[in-house]
Amino acid sequence: MTKILMTSVRADEERAIQAFAQTHDLDITLSREPLHPDNMTDFSAYDGLIVQQTAKIGGDLPFYQHLAQQGLKQITTRTAGYDMIEVALAQAAGLKVTNVPAYSPRSVAEMALMQIFRLLRRTWAFDHRVAENDFRWAGLQAREIHTVTVGIIGAGRIGGTLAQLLHALGARVLAYDTQPQDEHRAYLTYVDKATVLSESDVISLHVDLNPSSVGLLRAADFKQMQSHAGLVNASRGQVIDTTDLITALQTGEIESAALDTVVGESAVFNQDLRTQGVADTQIQTLLDLPNVILTPHVAFYTNLAIQNMVETALTDVLRIINDLPAENEI
């Protein structure tokens, strides 16, 4: 029987995993722990390996060679991002690497749309006022979505889906992408990055994390944005310079931000820190800012997305084990 190890497994994934295992006659071992060289060393009992984590595995070439020598042909992440895997080293060791690039574009797009509405309606400010028993409206007039311009940076599967939703609501949609796609032109207008920054009332980020997207928004970019503008990030934390963002929010260069992902999140998100608090000073600063909405990287977290992530990842693993091409090989 084919045996597969899945790491960082959450309880909400188990139903989909068990259903797939039963259908395909698999023996799947579930680990709650992330994959690191110091906590997992024996892979000889497994035919396949699937991970899910934001922190890097931290493996060197000998580690990935060790995986191959113990019989593994691949390493798969059941996420769209794959920066946790040292891909070049894994491939140099002869391992195939796959991801799940489109588990549910709608789930992330809907989350971004909700956050856009929250920034336009200034619910972050009302939440703080009401928490202090201040129920006044003064200074918090909202804007209706059909009267604003929304900028999308990264108009791929998720950004394109968001553009469709925004277009249906009557918003003007601008987009910056290094690879414009003709199928999205019915819902948005492609422009350069500077135009997106200067003309948008809200900007939503949907880029992959790669060397060209790290630090995509810095101090100079925030200075180009309108002072009433909001920023939504449902991609990865590293695409924004956090120090520059905090400065822009504190000085009023931009009005607000809704962040579902931040630098350093792996030590904070999906953790119960009610007793010890947040040690990361930048994340704590963001939490303290009244004009920031912070959610713990949950834009993907829907019933359909979880099922698709599990099934797509396992399907690719089975194909590689059986010497067939995998649809989502990096």
Automatic annotation (TrEMBL):
CDD domains: LDH. Keywords: NAD, Oxidoreductase. Residues 114-299 form the D-isomer specific 2-hydroxyacid dehydrogenase NAD-binding domain. It comes from the Bacteria. The keyword Ribonucleoprotein does not apply. Residues 13-329 form the D-isomer specific 2-hydroxyacid dehydrogenase catalytic domain. Belongs to the D-isomer specific 2-hydroxyacid dehydrogenase family. This is D-2-hydroxyacid dehydrogenase. It comes from Leuconostoc holzapfelii.
